[in-house]
Here is the input.
Amino acid sequence: MPDARTEEFIARIQEGAQVEATDWLPDDYRAKLLKFIEMHGNSELMGVLPEREWILKAPTLQRKLALTAKVQDEVGHAQLIYRVVEDLGKPRERCLADLVDGKAKFHNVFHYPTKTWGDVGVIAWLVDAAAIISQKALLKCSYAPYARIMKKICWEESFHILHGRDVILAMVTGTPEQFELVQEALDRWWGPLMQFHGNPIPREEDPMFQWRIKSQGNEEARQQFLDGYVPQIRELGLTVPDPKLCKRDDGVWEYSEPDWDELKHVVTGHGPKTEERLAFRRRFLEREQWVRDAVLAA
Amino acid sequence: MNEHPVWEVFRKEKRGAAFEHAGSVVAPDADFAEAWAREQYGRRGESVALWLVPRGAIRDVEDWADEFDLKYRRVDGYSIKARLKEARERAGTAGAG
Here is the structure.
């Protein structure tokens, strides 16, 4: 049973109140918030790796610069987010150590390979679109410092989505081979995209919703994604690889059950690229130690 | 890095706008704090000015006592709905407007 102070806190945030870093926070709230935000920070940091691989292989100078800017933005988001985590009580060094030791999680979509330039387009357009749906809902998060940095993050993400859509448009209006690269990438990414927002737990049973860390249920986010992006995918002549996908008369999208076992397997560190990307991150963390030491010694 | 002070970052989006709290950075001194803040809050031209304030320098004021019930000095001190209804009924103008 929560004590009176905690109950009062829950009542306040459920009415939409936001709290600050210097306010009293119930331990359970602080712990859940920290874990959630840390995973977000890890995802931003790991999320640049699939795209980073293509900076050197980008088809034009313009694309190379745009991709580099995007990678810079995402690493910047990780910086902002880890700062919020630090204020909640976990130092950045420990977040990074836990990440490279495989003790912390990051989003499922960043555990997969980036096979072709088509994958880069699908990631920048659709993975970012799925992410921005979750991030926009976080603008109403009960923890105000997190909600505030989300404003900046969403602002930058909107340019990322446009960049992704532009990459896709260039390819679908190109040669048949280019069109095929996009279709193949979509076929590869559709499963992970449908898993992205998580199991459809009812809002009432989701502690993240009770604490108003999230203001949106998982299924609600997925429906919003389907509603916003399936028509945009189809109008380009692309095929969504799910024969059961259709919008019912009441506006709800029906789809084949996503592979929840795959989701669990991947986010617990068993994705096709998990090991390789963590090793990459570990190598750079060690290589850049002297920079952090120099700053500390200043 | 945690022994270094936290600097609260306030940003101004355009000329004439008010400074708004944006986030914070951890830095050993004001020059480092400026470098981090420029990178994190001004890189894409999203701010025309930044303020950096050591967190310890902020005086927090959050308790607002109202022992003398000063509501009469504010808009929320006046609830005229019920009285207005009664006045309109007496005057026979209820529902006329």
Q: What stands out?
A: Chain B has a mean pLDDT of 89. The CA atoms of residues 37 and 43 of chain B lie 9 Å apart.
